[in-house]
Each structure stands twice: as C-alpha cells, then as structure tokens.
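Teaching note: in complex prediction, the entire set of molecules is handled at once rather than each chain in isolation. The prompt given to students was simply: 'Predict the structure of this complex.' The entities are:
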Amino acid sequence: MSDAPTISRRRVLNLGLAGAGAAAMAPTLASAQTPDPLIVERQEWTQYLGDGVNAKPYGVPSKFEKDVVRREVEWLTASRQSSVSFTPLHALDGVITPNGLCFVRHHGGEAEIDPDKHRFMINGMVDKPLVFTMEDIRRMPGRVNRVYFLECAANSGMEWRGSQLNGCQFTHGMIHNVVYTGVPLKAFLNEAGVSAKGKWVLAEGADASAMTRSIPLEKAMDDCLVAWAMNGEALRPEQGYPLRLVVPGWEGNMWIKWLRRVEVGDQPWAQREETSKYTDLLADGRSRQHTFLMDAKSVVTNPSPQSPLKSKGPNVLSGVAWSGRGAIKRVDVSLDGGKNWRTARIEGPTFPRAMARFYVDFDWNGQELMLQSRAMDDSGYVQPTKNELRKFRGTNSIYHNNGIQTWLVRPDGSAENVEVS
Amino acid sequence: MSKSAKAIAFLALAVACTGGAFAGERAGLGRPALPEELKAWDIDVRPDGQGLPDGKGSVSDGEALFQTKCSSCHGEFGEGAGRWPVLAGGKDSLTSDRPEKTIGSFWPYTSTVYDYIHRAMPFGDAQSLKPDEVYALTAYLMNLNDLVPGDFVLSRGNFPKDLPNEKNFYDDDRETTEKTFWNNDPCMSNCKDKVEVTGHAAILDVTPDDQKDNKDEKPAGAVE
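The expected output is the structure of the full assembly:
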C-alpha cells in the first residue's frame, strides 16, 4: 500500500496485541483521487447568515446531536414515575456530565417546587429545631464547590445473571458526575445544635415518595452537602430543584432530592429504602444492609455496542472510572479478555469520589478484541471480575455490581456486551 | 454618618463575619420550628415504635380498604397485578433461583410497613390515609402473610417489632469478607490460559432498538 511508511511508523505505537502481525489497513481519508466538494464548493453555512445571538436564550445542543439523550428501558419497571433513565455515556467525553443528560431516578415522579415555597427543616435530637427558606440557605456561611459522581446502587444490576443490555448507556448509565454548589450539612446541624446522643440522621424529600434514608451522623458531619446548584446553575427539577443532599461516594438513593428535612436520632430508622430496597440478598438467603459505599468501577465507553469501531488503524479507546472510597489511582485496560493488561492514561482532573477519564491510543488491524477495564483506587481496591463478585454474593443481590465489563469487538467493528470465562 | 463612624460600623461588620461561622459558631440563620410544623412533617416510624401515632385498625377493616385503595395494583391478596409489587407470599424463597421478596418473606420490621404506607401510598395519592386506616392496612398485610389471625386488631400498644426475616440482615462487611479485592499488585500478563465468551447480550435481545419495527438491530442511541 502507498502509505506503508505511515503504518510502520504507527507500529511504534502498537500495543503488541495478539495477532499484531496481520497487515494493518490504510486509515480513512489517507488520500483522495478527486477534490472534495465540501472544500472546493461554497457551502450554505459559509454563504448565508446564521441565527442571531437572541435565537436561543438558553442554548441547546446541535440538531446533529439529537441521538445523545437519556434513554429508558421500558420493561424494567411498572411505572415511569418510579423508574430510571440512563446517561448516554457512550456519547460523552471528559469528566463532567451535562445537566440535561444526567440520568434520572424517581420514586414518585418529578416534583415541581417553587423555591419560594420550599422549606428545609432540621429536627430530632437537636437543641433547637429549625426551619430554613432557600433565601436563608443561600446566606449560610461556608459555601463550597465539589465534583462528585452519583451512581445508582442498581447501576449494572440487570447484569448480575449475565449479559443482558447491549450498550454502556444501559449497563453503566445510572451515573453522572457534576460540580455541586452548596453548604456542608454540618453547618445546618451545628446551627440547630446536635445532641451528644445523636448517632444517625434521617434525610427526607418533599416529593410524592417522601424518600427517606438513614445516614450515620459521622458521614453527615464529614462531607455531605446541602446543594442547590449543579455545573454552575440551579439544580434541574429532575435532580431535586431547589435543594438536594450530596452524599459523596455513597449509593445514589441516599442523595435525597427535593430535600425538605434532616432529623437527628440515636439509631437508624429502617425505612423502606434501606430494608425492602437497597439491601443486598446473598446466596445463603441472608442480606447485607447499610451497603452505603460504591466500590471502584470502570467501563470502556468507546468502543462499545452503541459506539462501534469504524476504521482500522489508529483508534482511541476511552472510558470512565470512579470509586466511592477515594480517588482513582490507576486504570488498566485489556484487549484480550483479561489475559494481558496495560495501564491507561488518565487525562483531566481526578478528584476523590469523582469520575476520572482514561484513554488508550491503539492501532486496530481488524482483529477481534475483548475489551475490559479495571479500576484501582487509592485505598488499594482493585475492581473485581463479575465472576469474582458472584463467588461472594451469588446473583440475586441486585445492587452494587461493580464487576469488570467485557465488550466483544468483531472484525466489522461492531461491539457486543458479553460475559467471558 | 461621619467617616470615623462609618469605619467603626464597617469594622463591626468585618468582626461579625470572621467571628461567626468560621469559628464554628452559629450564623443565626433559620428560625425555630413550631410544634405544629414538626408534627406535620416528622411522620417517620422506627422499629422500636417511636413515631407511631395513637390509633388502631382491624384485619377486616384493612381488607375492605385494601380492595378499594390498593388491590388494583397489588392484587386482592397482595399477589401483585401485572408488574406491580407483590406484598405477600414468597416464604422460604430467599435461597431459591428466583427469590420473592415480600413483607412476609423479606422485610425485617413491621414499622416500615406502617411508615411506608403512610408516607407514600397509595401511589399517586400519598399521605391521604389516616392513622386508623394505616393500622388497618398494616394488619391486613400481616394477615395476608400469615403473621396474625383474621380477628387481629393492630394498635400502638401491640405493635410488633420484628418480622420473620429480621435476623437475616447484617451490616455491610465487604471490607472483611471481600478483602481479597484489595491488591496492590494485580496480574498484568498471561493472567489466564484462555478466554471464552460465555454469554451474549445480543442473543437475549432485550435492549431498546432505534426502531420499533426491529429492522434496525443497533442499540438505541448508537452513534451513526
């Protein structure tokens, strides 16, 4: 081929994959026989004026990005008001999730609350139960900005028994990662004065599910936030406008939306969402409770079933990793189903309990790949395989599936969610 | 105001800012919650019975209420209509291949039944039930799960704490039982002899497609 020198130069970058001896194909657009009309002919966007600056007072993505949306899996739940939609991870990059694409989990639909009518109460084992307006909350000293991932406890839950849904949006898309603006919950608890006997708090939402969760006081006083903004603007209604709880590193269910009350007590409340739900049934019939923390996890977002490989030659493997135990320290990637691993390049900011972005630049010669990623956090935890998790938990625990994902990439570039031995 | 008076006022404000919250003291924001307000919102009930209001309800009253307000979703006997939650049955199923996790087979505490019905049911008309009605519905659900006889009347005085499965819950022990997952030196090369594909999502074919007619087999949202 005419561009053989280019190929051999790329061999320097080659990952040394099995089958690397097979001839690599010419990359796309390496040469042209006829002039490209997109270049030699004047295009309409060059000739005519576009919209003025007032056309979109609140901007929206290009119409060519219309497929980058949250999606649902209708058969998962009985009602859309107690259901979930999924973040299109396969179509995103970097580490910050755009507000309009952050996955949504409701238990009583999306409450629509006038912020002037919202109240936030602190009560229970405190010196002085208090009521705050949103105006009061914004006047509280000690405002902070923090980046955290929020992962649903049930993310990847449909995959416990085996490969089921074909795309990382569906297998891993119950997660988002944004900058929150708010005030530490501790400030509100101090304002009311927590009794020395206080050991737990109960957080409660104002929506039609009146969602409640028990949280150890130690966590409440450590890094929980009462937040009213995400990515620089007010919370979206579906994310709890005007106020939500931020519980860094812990399962998404605890991040109470439309937060209206925090009660202090001396024992957990055993509410529905911490007994019937968000408890993890193991093979012996017993169940773990209070499995708050989300363990280290990762997924290759590109290529993946919704984002196939299109060209041989240079390609960029990309993915995200996160851990509720701290910061992502390392991500390893395998292209042969876990036989051999190499360490990926983490690019961009990596905060504790936030999403990290990783890349592996590689040459693809059309061979079949079995892609995996393996996250390690700064506690030394290494993301396990699904089979390793099943050894400890069986297949009925629903929540906390952080097992390694495998994508089978075929010679035509298409990718599929598979299980491997 | 004279210049010096302004300076003193400004200084006082500065002192108030630095001496307040930053020293861990109270900012003085918010106002005391009134007893009526606490009563309206603090409706949670704990396993030890804290939070239960006065009242009572019988299994038979609960059955009548259940048929009116609940059975369209949960079935006449709590068996669940369509895809809606099953509330009764599933005894001894927790180690089976397909566990049925109901109030009787799985839930640890009776208090949660009362609290959740009062808090969030009926779905679409939450917090519409009076204490006696919630007691009656809780009694009926206990009866459907073979926990109390048909003539039982539930009240704060005889409210039971534990349900049959309570003893089978324990606190998160991942750091002990799964400590093998902490490993500073995971295998990097020749980690397995062979790798075989053991399961395919595409064969199951339950992922939403872009087109309803199923002609387009690409998963929804695929990058074109």
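Point out the following to students. Residues 1-27 of chain A have pLDDT under 50 and may be disordered. The CA atoms of residues 298 and 321 of chain A lie 4 Å apart.
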